[in-house]
TrEMBL record:
Species for this entry: Macrostomum lignano
Protein name: MFS domain-containing protein
Keyword list, A-Z: Membrane, Transmembrane, Transmembrane helix, Transport
Compartments in which it is found: Membrane
Topology in the lipid bilayer: Multi-pass membrane protein
Amino acid sequence: MYQEIDAASADAQHVGRLTRLRESKGLVVAVVTLLLMLDVMLITVLEPLLPAMLFELDQLQQGGITWSAWLSSLFRCGGGGGVSSIGYFSNSSNDQLDGSSERQLYAKYAPQIGLVLGLKPGVEVIGNLLVGPLVDRVGHKAPLLIGSGLYLVTAGMFGFSPNYPILLIARLLQAASSSLSTVAGLALLAATFAGDEVERAKAAAVAFGGLSFGLIMGFPFGAVLAQWFGRASPFLVLGGLSLLDMALRLAVRTPADSASHARRDRGNKDNRDKDNEEEEKKAKRRESTSASLKEIG
């Protein structure tokens, strides 16, 4: 019996620790920091690889490289071939583009590069205006989870896009993911530290530090992984990190969750109070009935 009591007490303590962790302000800061970092890293990974990606896809459509050669450029162990920092090494010839060819490459794909890069901020301006009222209506959790799911899909599409239209669709989904995650995350951060301006400023500084870190690390991160492990590898790593991010977003307790939990606790307490009142009334009626029977007797 005592062992059962001890086990129940240990389980209650474990649940209490998990609840405190989910409700901690530190977890909210970690979630917002990670989402800002991953959002900007996907941008900075894509930008330096985009000219070579477009060249690959163009050659693939024209028959300049085979599908097997294109697939081999997606995954590779060790350097040699594939995407370089400033151009593309053809998997079929291993000849590096000279300076003139590199300039022609950038000039040829400049309109397509501009459209891909400009599509996200253009759509995000509209998306941010729509997501704000949505967060007020449905809370923080749903936009955060949907944004994380879209991020995972976007990373996969960037890594395995077989043509230019798929790149544009991926960029649109990236804009939607960024709007949902950024607006909901910053709103959650503000709501969590609503009562303390100093703490809110410190939390915002840490969160935007994640954005700066992603901006600094994204370019070398994507270039090194693409050079040594294939073009798809940096997007796969970011997709894996997004799964961790999704788990944290699912675990964090938002103000709406806390309010719902508090209402549920108040409702349970009210129900218990009503039950106790009913029991007291029944006990009083039984006592009055017993007293009446004794007087009659």
